[in-house]
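It is worth pausing here to work through a concrete case rather than discussing structure prediction in the abstract. The textbook approach is simple: state the sequence, then state the predicted structure, then interpret. We follow exactly that order.
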Amino acid sequence: MGKQPENSGEADVVEGYSNGELLVASVNDSKVNEEWILDSGCTFHMSPNRDWFTTYEIVFEGVILMGNNSSCKIAGVGTIKVKMFDGVVRTLSDMRHVPELKRNLISLSTLDSKGYRYTTKSEVLKISKGSLAVMKGQRKTAKLYVLQGSTVTGDAAVASSSLPDDDITKLWHMRLEHMSENYMVELSKRGLLDGQGIRKLNFCEHCVFGKQKRVRFTRGIHNTKGTLEYIHSDLWRTSKVPSRGGANYMLTFIDDFSRKVWAFFLKQKSDVFSAFKLYKSEGIVRHLAVRHTPQQNGVTEQMNRTLMEKVRCMLSNANLPKSFWAEVASTACLLIIQSPSVAIEEKTPQEVWSGNPANYSDLKIFGCPVYAHVDNGKLEPRSIKCVFLGYKASVKGYKLWCPQNRKVVISRDVVFDETAMLPYLSLKDSSNKENQK
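Step two, the predicted structure:
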């Protein structure tokens, strides 16, 4: 059953345009214009293109009043994803579906009410939140600014339904590999989590399994002025559990300036030396820590602790064997460089390293069920059920574990069922609360 949009007692407005500019589409139009107009005259975001909506609810009331006093019916309300000038995908919420419009409109007044500010200079309209520019528009005519970006269509499908706010918070907590509530709130304030708010995070058993308070490591201060000036490194050995690829060691490198981390998985300890065989010829000078004094290498010790906390949380959450630790650690590294860090003034390592904000639009819950497209014949199923293992570097695809074939596969044609992870967590939450009474 459809619903009535907010403020349905008052008609939404589009004003300041001539009759032929934004009104009813003519029968000669071959397709809806794909441009987005940054508009100061409309009260809500609006689009005539139903296929662009990622979420959608039919509505039975509400009209749009045009500048010439004509009206158009609102058919639905939902969200549309748009890839901005910097490559970040952002979600436009409360989008009105108005089939008779000729243009796609982004309401500047709506953005203003949500704390965004806009300025114009040299025929460019820039929309910012704090110091971060999130949208840009190029002036096309005397009145119209066209968004520098494109609508996201044909994205990996997600099997999901409308979720309560508490479950949205759990969803992002697991997508971000059990990030703290404070950092999730910070990302939400920056508008980086699909425009969704973060509520108080309820009890998470997997965080209890994975994290434990320890004495803080002393942080060394190196006063670096740029990336790659000083690199921290350490070798970590697993406790008798080789990875599925046979690795027994994890070698980490951390850039001191940006806090970006890389992890390499080695079968033997002797493999480490090949990574450093050119250090003298390249002018790299080693700073050694005193034996049995890990505190002198505090940055890497802290990073190893953070990595292993995430690995334990993710293995517990996904209910996977310990032999998947390397796949988990690789995914955890990716999430760490997209997480705010106290060491760099709450910025993310990705932002400091590249100058661009992190993109969270492709994040999925590690270990969730995922269905990969296959073509094994006309009468065979079109998908095979797998487990989501993470993101393949330099490849536009997802890394999956196929239990049926017992191998890792890479695919971009996938359907995720993240909601399958939520009932399990909710059940554990309620049982733990009962035990705490």
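Step three, interpretation. Residues 369-416 form one domain. Residues 1-32, 154-161, 292-296, 424-437 have pLDDT under 50 and may be disordered.
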